[in-house]
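Provenance and format

Records in this collection were gathered into a single text stream. Each protein contributes a sequence line and a token line. The two records reproduced below are adjacent in the stream.
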Amino acid sequence: MLDGPVIIDMNCSQLAIVNVPVTGLWTNPTSPRPIDAPLLADEPDHDRWLAGLDAQPTLEQGRLGLFDRFDSELVEGEPVVVTGHDADGWTRVAAPWQPYDGSTAGYPGYVRTAHLRPAADAPLDQLPAAGRTPSVDAFLDAARRHIGLAYLWGGISPAGLDCSGLVHHSLRHLGVIFPRDAGDQYSACEDIPIPDAQPGDLYFFAHPGKPLHHVGIVTGPGRILHSPSTGEVVVEEPMPAPRQATLTAVGRIRQLHSRYL
């Protein structure tokens, strides 16, 4: 749960609820490709969409081509704040369960209007009853359930996860609202000296002078549980040498430690 209330100008916005199992949050209405049609249908078929991506002759034509097109996903029951409408059945929204850019207003993007239903009100700052009480062990258990799952850029559902999506989804399972992207996730954590990393902390990675580009979960000294990149799967492993070279910071998730609550 967020530390404070979500503040939204209801004179300019209205609420809606996602009414399909999983839908995409796209950069703009022109982002989808013909191969993405199954996810755009009024009754989206997420599995058929993924199968179609994986059937493409190159990663660039399939999953890798989602880069700069597909920012995140929304799942059934998730509330959104409607900020505008576009032609051809698109709605511009912000997703408050996915804090973004230092704000609780929520991750912005475009979603198919048919995938939403209007709502008079919605729990913007609180997730439904979680599966377990938030703790380091519960977080690690939730994340490990996805070992072997294929990487999906923008994915936050059990059908596909990117690196920050693995962190976000595993915490959401515990009822914790946590940012969607790696940079925002680091900002939400307590900074910890790298040698002091403990299981349940987060490893963050960046090239010199560049923004954070990867996040993984610490499971032991030098061990990482993460969703590496397109074409790979969620894995728990000793930190590979290329990752060691770009390890930049460690963050501690406050919601998993009683002294922060």
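Adjacent record:
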Amino acid sequence: MTVQHDSSVYEQIQSGEQFQELRRRYRSWAFPMTVAFLAWYLLYVVLSGFARGFMGTKLFGNINVALVFGILQFVSTFLIAWAYSRHASAKLDPLADELRHDVEERAQ
């Protein structure tokens, strides 16, 4: 098995329909989720800078809107990680496993 043979196997896989479908599935989830999270994060930053009165509004005791939004940033991060894990298990991993087996067979 030569290095040139190995690279051609990977090039063939990469140009194939299955790989392109895997990329499409990944991007169709990752890009919108990234945009949504960045928008949510920037909303928090902008409100903290320009809507101090609103962010300083006390909800109960010493808990204000800014603290709740800050905690929700962490919550949303964990929810996104959990959702991605489910998406990957259901939509990406089976196709990636097929591709890996195809690469292993062609490399032999």
